[in-house]
Amino acid sequence: MAPLRCPTCRHVFESTYTVAMPFCSERCRQIDLGQWLDEEHALPLDIEKHLEEQATQPPENDDPDDEVSW
């Protein structure tokens, strides 16, 4: 296989030598997870557009068992 570059430490490694793909090690995988949990990484989101869409959509209630009938 072609060598890959770890997205955390930038180390070049062979994918056949790791169980933590796409990272070179479990340590790098845990560092990346910590960065997501600390919100150092985030997916781009236009919050104003998202809130507008949420406000104009009716509430979803697809499960008739959720409704209480007295």
What keyword list fits this structure?
alpha+beta; 9% strand; two-stranded antiparallel ribbon; 2 helices; 70 residues
Summarize the structure.
Helices cover 31% and strands 9% of the residues. By secondary structure, the chain is α+β, with helices and mostly antiparallel strands.
Describe the structure.
With 70 residues, the protein is α+β, with helices and mostly antiparallel strands. It contains two helices and two strands. It has helices at 26-37, 47-56, and strands at residues 3-5, 12-14. A two-stranded antiparallel sheet has the order 1-2. A hairpin with a 6-residue loop joins strand 1 (3-5) and strand 2 (12-14). It is elongated, with a radius of gyration of 21 Å. The N and C termini lie far apart (64 Å).
For the termini, the CA-CA separation is: 64 Å
Tally of DSSP β-strands: 2
Mean pLDDT: 83
- Given helix and strand content, the structural type is alpha+beta
Number of helices: 2
The Cα radius of gyration reads: 21 Å
SS strand fraction: 5-15%
Ordered list of secondary-structure elements with their pairings:
Layout: E1 3-5, E2 12-14, H1 26-37, H2 47-56
Antiparallel strand pairs: 1-2
